[in-house]
Amino acid sequence: MDSGEQGETSKAPLNKGVSRGVSILDLILRVIAVISTLASAIAMGTTNETLPLFTPFIQFKARYSDLPALTFFVVANSIVSAYLILSLPLSIAHIIRSGAKYSRLVLIIFDAAMLALVTAASSAATAIVYLAHKGNVRANWLAICQQLDSFCERTSGSLVGSFGAMVLLILLILLSAMALARR
Amino acid sequence: MDSGEQGETSKAPLNKGVSRGVSILDLILRVIAVISTLASAIAMGTTNETLPLFTPFIQFKARYSDLPALTFFVVANSIVSAYLILSLPLSIAHIIRSGAKYSRLVLIIFDAAMLALVTAASSAATAIVYLAHKGNVRANWLAICQQLDSFCERTSGSLVGSFGAMVLLILLILLSAMALARR
Fold it and tell me: Is the Hydrolase keyword given for this protein (chains A, B)?
């Protein structure tokens, strides 16, 4: 694995081509991550199900805003999606100027922070959605998914995009680190 | 900000000193992260509270294993802690050989994965502990912390170490990336 450390100057054109490839892959992964976080936020944000007779005295309408963890999920996915859109110009700049150093460092640190944010959001939402599906006998929390069938399906589905974005952000950090190491 | 890109060869001794400083800081942060994840896992894992008459027919004993999210918290913090201990020799090697490239790349990708793991664990546990404290009126989940006072305090407290480790791992990724960029 250490063979790449010798003769770096003689392989400059090849290295540059690979760096450009890495930068293009970075851009593609970023676009996919934008789509998946945006889809997650929209899918969760637009979920609602009205149950006319859930309790005898109120009309029950289930929305994401009823559960704080799902609200956090929508907000966090929107933030990550906005950040990823803002990072696209920088990613395009890296294709043109593949030796950039400080801008890649900036991307790595923000990508890591956004990785933490999107992971926190998807895992808090997962904990709550899991509870909605299964309930918890010891804590006496009942599963609410028998009543709220389509609500539970939509919320479960919208987790997928967020977990996808998590994996993509780990890959993006790896790509940026590889680009830094290749210089 | 781009001024560092010129005259890199002439500043080699200074750069090496800074790189060594970065590597030492990396080691210190790793040790702190080991302690905080280990403390979190132990604090959560040893929590239990017995309520003799919570319900009239069973003796209620609250443990972390009653809630899947808290079990995940203990497991994930143990894994991250074990990984961080295993990464210490590599971190020490970086102090001696500050120009290392591939081993830093390996550390960055594993640090990013462990960041995702510890964030997922702490945020899922936070969602459940928050629910235990506040309950949720819409889903008809009652707050269980009135009865389980010391259980709730211990579990809330053990979240701190995990969130600390999250911040430390973001800093570790930044330090590794900086070391790669400085080479």
Answer: no
Q: In chain B, what are the domains?
A: 14-182 (1.20.120)
Q: CB–CB of B122 and A120 under 8 A?
A: yes
Cβ-Cβ contacts under 8 Å, A125 against chain B: 127
- Out of B124, B181, B183, the one facing A123 most closely (by C-beta) is B124
State pLDDT tens for residues A21-56: 888 999 999 999 999 999 999 999 988 777 655 555
Res. A138 pLDDT band, cuts 50 70 90: confident
Is B124's Cβ below 8 Å from some Cβ in A?
A: yes
Neighboring chain B residues of A183 at a CB cutoff of 8 Å = 181, 183
Nearest by CB: B124 against A108, A115, A124 = A124
**Test the B interface: residue of A102, A131, A148 with most B CBs within 10 Å:** A131
ipTM entry: 0.82
Indicate whether B10 pLDDT > 60. no
Which pLDDT score is estimated for B62? 78
Please give the full DSSP string across chain B, using - where no structure is assigned.
-GGGGSSTGGGHHHHHHHHHHHHHHHHHHHHHHHHHHHHHHHHHHT-EEEETTSSSSS-EEEEGGGSHHHHHHHHHHHHHHHHHHHHHHHHHHHHHSTT--HHHHHHHHHHHHHHHHHHHHHHHHHHHHHHHHH-BTTTTBPP-TTT-HHHHHHHHHHHHHHHHHHHHHHHHHHHHHHHHHH-
